[in-house]
Structure formats: structure tokens, C-alpha cells
Specification:
The complex is a heterodimer of chains A (about 650) and B (about 150). Chain A is mainly beta. Helices cover about 10% and strands about 55% of the residues of chain A. Helices cover about 15% and strands about 35% of the residues of chain B. Chain B is built from 2 helices and 10 strands; from the N terminus they run αββββββαββββ. In chain B, the strands form 3 sheets. Chain B has a 5-stranded antiparallel sheet with strand order 3-2-6-7-10. The chains are: A mainly beta (about 650), B alpha+beta (about 150).
Chain lengths: ~650, ~150
């Protein structure tokens, strides 16, 4: 009878698996995963958020016992099949030897450039960590939007994300959308979008993990996190703290990030999520090595809170997300600011037919704050900005191998009036894992409060918003052991906002039309025996504005790992080469190429009986002790070591199979 | 777990402890004070009088000049006396202040100017260096960044 049951199950599952595999093949080409729409024909009872298939657990006589299909999976983080994107699993970020999450993302995709200056990026003068994607972004402009669990995350006054505020302990995966997508995400999604999704536990029980590390420069890092699921409740919490003396005077700092999240499922298709993240950063701008200023300290508190209501029906998913992001920043010179970004997003995904998906949404957002100097008593006059927008996206598959995507957003800004944004793209999966894609997006960024009003070092209330038209075309192949992709891109931007000169004669203005174009590629050889190799490269021509916008970048990661029963031993060698770095525009003030390599060694012992795992590891950073800098006269640390121990504990109720 | 202890010990002994140690001594003149001394990532707070030395600082390996701010008390005294801002002190101009100097156009604030050593020094792991600042080995430093931040 077991044979009969197995045949029956196979009959049920084969079409689902085959269809899911088709979608995985397609999605893998853009670095994404199986899209929700295709992989989840229906959301059966017990599924969460219309999750995709497939697992089966049936024993005994098929004719007598009901067959139970257990749905395991998650919706796709990608919402646009035509976009060029890189998907990074959270575990890769947790295992990365790079000092921060943004730098770890940069290691995964060569068209993402993130400079550093040590263990922390810092804020204000001397801060690093600005993300550039395909030539747009960086500092002080923020043309790359970070969206964390559906919430746009940036500082209200300065308009950029805080790079030290992201730690990977609860990250499920990150999607790096290249070429921006203001149609879906609104302002700031000019050069790219970093979409972060956090983890939940998939089945009843709980898991706890601790990651403790100690190393050079008296660096102490501790992370404790936990996930739990009990009946209708899902819980996730984590606490991360890091303290370091830094590799030179003024490079010391303390980082604290705490996250709590709870989700209650009123019904299988109705859930409410509440999430809060608090961040505290203390550090300093060490200044140039020639002229250090370790007393230029900063103290930052930030808190992001959101609610998310999700409701799913057969061909419909409704999501509503109100959020509030507040922060208090204090600097050594008396600067004191309180800022906030608050808003709400509501969208509905409709699937009127098996070949058509429609996304309709509306968003509202207000940014504001106040700034004063605690020493001089001066108070800067600033005005907040509000925008509301309606957006939509239509995805059609006229034939199974072809996806067409059209999107648009009408944004109404309290300061700049109506702005129309649009995009269109296509993907054609022409042969077994091979696909081509192309997309055009019209993107937008409104000036920040700082650029408009604050004298740091100067302001210009007459600034116009930035606009960009991004186009890319690419081809890729993904299979079990090989993934290859290559994309060409071209960006035409108008009214980019740039600072020129230095205080007291600095100015901030809109510049004229600029053109950026480049080529990016990636090769991955996966699980060839114990080894995997990933190489990604990017070359670009950014035109006149070359400041901190490198000509070329190459990243590689060689991984080796071997399972030995309940043990695992492995490691990786990774490296980054950056060429054509300048500290000034017009290719002025060139600085030496960056080349750095890191080595990671780890051993894991897992006790399946006790459901405990122990994982000692050691990170050997800057293995070749290279003297290099991303920012002139901000030398990076020499060879340094971080050694740690991870402990994982799982508990599953006895009623569930081990 | 024994090797874990070894690894942790190795990490604890991290390479930062092998960074070169640098001491700077003020050997300029009795009337000259130095402050905000720095060398390749090291920074020393406080004022260094003639003959005094900084504490040993662990600096980055590499090459740099010693950068500092200099205050010449004798020159300051001479200027203030000439301007008549300090009554009865340093009668450098025959004991009387110049009546041509207009009040408000003089500056009684001591001025510290940016200087650096003429010679660059190279330091590497495990080394100890004593750098002496002398009057013949310093020059004005125009590489100091502008005072503005954010």
C-alpha cells in the first residue's frame, strides 16, 4: 500500500514540483527565487501568506488515510520578474568576514560599492558606508533606498540609511535591485534598492543562537537571537552588541542593535505583525591619519516601529504597513537633531488569471525634524515634506517563457507637485535555465532637508529633485552547479545634487545631464565536490563625477566545506579589488587601487539528539596585511583576527517529527 | 576545545599589539609649546612644553610626518607688547605701547599654527621610534583639513 500511496503522492506533486522548478530556473537568472505567483497556485488551508508549495507527509493506505499536503515556503522577495537583481541569503551575510552587512553585500555583487574605514562606518564627517549601485548613490547623496521588512529606512534629515544599523542575525535574505525602482518604492530608489527580509520560524518550537567573538583591537562582539512559533504566535528577537578600540586613535566605537517582532495569525490567511528595532551607536570620526581628530564623536539613537496587516484570499493578497522611524543624533560640535520618517503603505496583489498579476498600492510619507546646536543655542529652520502616491504594476505571461512587466507611480509631493514615474521590462526564458531580460525605469529622489535648509556645509532651498532613466539588458544561465550572468546598463540622470568646494565657500547645486554606463558579470561554480567559487566583476564609466565612484571592481569567494557525519569543517578565501578610485571629480586626486583578502575557517559540530550545535570560527581579515584605503588618508586595518563561537539550540514539540 | 583556546589566545594577542610605538619630544626652544601632535593615526592630547615627551603611542605602520600645532610664547609676548594689549609686560618696544595701534584690531588670543616635520618617517611592526621636533626640522603644514564637518 505504501507503493500506492507514493504513486498517488507523486501524481499530486510532480506537476507542482515541475512548475516550481520552472519558476526557480527563471528566477535564478535574475538572482531571485521562485516568484510567489507561479509557485503558489492557491493558498491552501494552513498556509501562511499564500506561500508556495511543496512537501508531503502521508503514510499508510492512501485509500483509507487522507493525504495531507504540508505547505512549506515563503513568498518571493522579488516583485518584478524583469529586474536585474542579486539575492543574498542571510546565512552568507552571517558567515561573511566583512566588517558590516553593507560590505558583505558589496562582496556578493561587484556593481555594489561600499567604502569602509574600519570596524564601524560612523555618521557625519568622516563617515563611510554609503552604498553605490551602478554609479549612483554614495555620500552625501542617498540614491539607494533600503527597505527593511517593507518599510523604507532612512534618516529623516540627511536622507540616507545608517550603515551601522544593519546586522545580519535575523536577516532571512536580501535582494539587491539594480537600476532602482521608484515605481514600486518611491523616492530615493534611484540607483538601486536593498530589500531586507527578516526571518520567522517555519514550524512550532523555538531556536536560540548565540555568537560570541573576540579579536584584535579589543573587539568584542556578542549576538543573541531567538525565533519561536507556538500556535498562532510567531516571535523573533535579537540583540547585538559590538565594542572595539579600533585600529587607530578615534576608530573605537560601540554598536548596539535590538530587534523584537511578533506575529499573530488570527486565521490562516490573516496575520498582524508588530516589529521594533532600536539602534544605538557611539563612535568618532578619527579624521585623516595625518591629522587625526579622535574627539569628533557622535552619539546616535534610532528606533523603527511598524505594524503589518496581511490578508490573503485565493487570488488576492492585501498588505497594510504603517511605520515610524525616529532618531536623535548628537555630535561633538553641539549638533543635535531629532528626525522622523512616518508613513504608511497599502497594496493589494491580484491574480485575475494564471498569466496575469496586478499590484495596486498607495503610499504616504512625511519626513521632518528639528535641528539645534546645544553649544551655541542656534536653531535651524527646517520644513518637513510630505508625499502621497498611487502605484501599480502589471505582470503578464503571454506565453510560459515570457514575462512582461509594466509599472507606474504618480507621486504628489507637498514641495514638488506631481511626479510621474514609470517602468517597463521583459524576461524571456528561452532554454533550460537560460534567460534574457531588459528593463527601463524612471526614478526620482527628492532633496533632503539637509540639502535644502542646513548649513552643513551649505544649503540651497531652490534645489530640484533628481531624476534618472535607467536601462539594463542582461543574459544569464542558472543550473545546479553553474550560474553565469552578464548585464549592461546605462543611466541618464538630470539634476543630480552635488556639493562643491569646502566651507566657507561650499555650494550645493543641481548639476546638468550625466550619463553612466557599464558592464557587470558574475560566474558561480557551485558545490563542485567540496568547493564553490564565485567571481563577480563590474566596469563602468561614470563620466565627470568620479569622486568615490570607482571605474572597476572585482570580488571573488572560494569556499571549501566538507560534512563529516555530524561535523562540518570548512572555510573560505574572499577578496576585493577596486580600481580607479578618486577623491575628486574629473578624475582628480586618484588613490591607489584597493586589494584585500580575508580568510574564514569554521568547524561545526551538531548533536542531533540534543539539538545543539557548536561552531567555533576564526576570521583572518586583511590576510596579506595590505596597506590600503577606500578614502584618502583613512587607512584600513592591517592583518587582524576575530575568533568566535556560535551556539545553536533548537526545541521542537514532541508531537512533531524530529 | 583546546584549539579553540589557542585561537582565542591568538586573537587576543592580535596584531595591533605589534603596531610600532612612537614617542615625540619637543626639542624646539624653551619658549615654544606644541599641541595636537599626531603621526600616522596616532594622536596625543595635551600641550608639550620644551623638553617634554609624549607617551608612547601605537601608530599604524607606514610613512608620515609628525603634525602638530606650535605656539611661540616669545613671539606672542613681543606682539602683545608692541600692540599694548598687556600692560606692564614685556616692554619690548622701549617700555611703551605703540599709540598707533587701534583697540579692537589687536588679538590677544594666543595663536597656534599648524606645522609638520620636514622629514617623513617610516615605521613598521614591532619597532620603537623617538622623534625629536627641532626648530630646523619643521615647516608650516598646509595639509590640515578645513574646520568644517558633517
Amino acid at each position: 500500500m505504501k507503493t500506492v500511496a507514493a504513486c498517488f503522492l507523486a501524481t499530486l506533486l510532480i506537476p507542482l514540483v515541475a512548475r516550481a522548478q520552472d519558476d526557480i530556473d527563471e528566477a535564478a537568472s535574475d538572482g531571485g527565487e521562485a516568484p510567489l505567483a507561479a509557485a503558489a497556485p492557491q493558498a491552501p488551508e494552513g498556509s501562511d501568506d499564500g506561500m508556495p508549495e511543496v512537501d508531503a507527509g502521508a503514510t499508510g493506505d492512501a485509500s483509507a488515510a487522507p493525504i495531507e499536503i504540508v505547505v512549506v515556503g515563503k513568498p518571493s522577495i522579488s516583485r518584478d520578474r524583469a529586474q536585474d537583481a542579486t539575492l543574498v541569503e542571510g546565512q552568507r551575510l552571517r558567515d561573511s568576514p566583512r566588517a558590516s552587512t553593507f560590505e558583505a553585500l558589496s562582496q556578493e555583487s561587484a556593481d555594489v560599492y561600499v567604502p569602509g574605514r574600519g570596524a564601524m562606518h560612523g555618521v557625519a564627517s568622516g563617515g563611510t558606508g554609503g552604498i553605490r549601485i551602478r554609479g549612483l548613490g554614495g555620500s552625501p547623496n542617498s540614491q539607494v533606498l533600503v527597505v527593511e521588512d517593507g518599510v523604507p529606512d532612512y534618516q529623516g534629515i540627511f536622507g540616507h540609511p545608517i550603515p551601522d544599523a544593519y546586522v545580519p542575525f535575523l536577516i532571512d535574505d536580501v535582494l539587491i535591485v539594480k537600476g532602482g525602482d521608484s515605481s514600486l518604492y518611491g523616492t530615493n530608489a534611484m540607483g538601486g534598492v536593498v530589500v531586507i527580509r527578516s526571518r520567522w520560524r517555519d514550524e512550532d518550537g523555538y531556536e536560540l543562537s548565540s555568537d560570541s567573538a573576540y579579536g584584535s583591537y579589543a573587539t568584542v562582539r556578542e549576538t543573541v537571537s531567538g525565533l519561536g512559533r507556538a500556535g498562532p504566535w510567531d516571535l523573533a528577537a535579537g540583540f547585538h552588541t559590538m565594542s572595539t578600540d579600533g585600529h587607530r586613535d578615534g576608530a573605537d566605537g560601540d554598536q548596539m542593535v535590538g530587534v523584537t517582532a511578533a506575529r499573530y495569525r488570527f486565521a490562516p490567511n490573516l496575520g498582524l505583525t508588530i516589529r521594533n528595532k532600536v539602534v544605538h551607536l557611539e563612535g568618532a570620526d578619527p579624521g585623516p591619519a595625518m591629522h587625526p581628530n579622535p574627539d569628533h564623536w557622535y552619539d546616535v539613537w534610532r528606533d523603527t516601529a511598524s505594524l503589518q496587516l496581511g490578508w490573503t484570499r485565493e487570488r488576492l493578497r492585501l498588505t497594510m504597513t504603517p511605520y515610524l522611524n525616529v532618531g536623535v543624533h548628537e555630535l561633538y560640535d553641539g549638533f543635535h537633531s531629532k528626525d522622523y520618517v512616518g508613513g504608511g503603505i497599502a497594496d493589494v496583489e491580484l491574480r485575475p488569471s494564471s498569466t496575469t498579476e496586478l499590484l495596486l498600492g498607495t503610499a504616504w510619507q512625511h519626513v521632518g525634524g528639528e535641528v539645534n546646536n546645544r553649544i551655541t543655542g542656534e536653531r535651524s529652520s527646517v520644513s518637513g515634506m510630505t508625499d502621497v502616491s498611487a502605484y501599480g504594476q502589471l505582470s503578464v505571461r503571454p506565453v510560459r517563457q515570457v514575462s512582461l512587466v509594466l509599472g507606474a507611480r504618480e507621486l504628489l509631493s507637498s514641495r514638488y507637485g506631481a511626479v510621474f514615474l514609470y517602468k517597463g521590462g521583459a524576461r524571456w526564458s528561452f532554454y533550460r535555465g537560460f534567460a534574457v531580460h531588459t528593463r527601463v525605469t524612471r526614478n526620482f529622489r527628492q532633496p533632503t532637508i539637509r540639502e535644502l535648509y542646513l548649513p552643513y556645509p551649505t544649503a540651497n532651498p531652490d534645489l530640484r529633485p533628481e531624476q534618472a532613466l535607467n536601462w539594463d539588458v542582461g543574459v544569464g544561465h542558472a543550473s545546479e552547479h553553474l550560474e553565469v550572468s552578464c548585464s549592461g546598463y546605462r543611466t541618464e540622470a538630470d539634476d543630480l545634487i552635488r556639493y562643491f568646494g569646502v566651507w566657507p565657500s561650499a555650494e550645493v547645486v543641481n548639476i546638468d545631464h550625466i550619463l553612466i554606463w557599464g558592464v557587470e558579470g558574475r560566474v558561480g561554480l557551485k558545490e563542485l565536490g567540496p568547493a564553490s567559487l564565485f567571481v563577480t566583476g563590474n566596469w563602468q564609466d561614470v563620466g565627470r563625477y568620479t569622486r568615490q565612484n570607482p571605474d572597476a571592481k572585482l570580488n571573488f569567494t572560494l569556499e571549501l566545506g566538507q560534512e563529516l557525519g555530524s561535523d562540518f569543517i570548512g572555510g573560505s578565501v574572499s577578496g576585493e579589488w577596486v580600481h580607479g578610485l578618486f577623491m575628486g571629480d574629473y578624475s582628480r586626486q586618484p588613490i591607489e587601487d584597493v586589494f584585500v583578502m580575508d580568510l574564514t575557517l569554521r568547524y561545526r559540530h551538531q548533536s542531533f539528539e540534543r539539538r545543539v550545535s557548536l561552531e567555533p570560527y576564526v576570521l583572518l581579515r586583511n590576510l596579506l596585511d595590505r596597506r590600503y584605503a577606500y578614502v584618502e588618508d583613512y587607512p584600513m586595518p592591517g592583518f587582524n583576527v576575530l575568533a568566535g563561537l556560535r551556539i545553536g539550540i533548537q526545541h521542537v514539540p514532541p508531537s512533531l517529527p524530529p | 576545545m583546546r584549539w579553540l583556546g589557542v585561537v582565542l589566545g591568538f586573537a587576543a594577542a592580535g596584531c595591533d599589539l605589534a603596531y610600532p610605538e612612537v614617542v615625540v619630544t619637543n626639542q624646539t626652544a624653551e619658549t615654544i609649546q606644541l599641541r595636537q601632535l599626531s603621526f600616522n593615526g596616532c594622536y596625543w592630547e595635551g600641550v608639550l612644553a620644551f623638553g617634554e615627551s609624549t607617551s608612547p603611542g601605537r601608530c599604524l605602520p607606514g610613512e608620515d610626518r609628525v603634525h602638530f600645532q606650535k605656539f611661540d610664547a616669545a613671539a606672542y609676548c613681543q606682539e602683545q607688547a608692541e600692540d599694548g594689549t598687556i600692560d606692564g609686560l614685556c616692554p619690548c618696544n622701549g617700555g611703551t605701547a605703540d599709540p598707533e595701534i587701534l583697540e579692537g584690531l589687536t588679538n590677544a588670543e594666543p595663536m597656534w599654527f599648524n606645522y609638520q616635520t620636514v622629514a617623513s618617517e617610516v615605521v613598521d611592526y614591532g619597532e620603537f621610534h623617538l622623534f625629536e621636533i627641532t626648530l630646523t626640522g619643521l615647516e608650516q603644514d598646509f595639509s590640515a583639513p578645513s574646520p568644517y564637518g558633517h
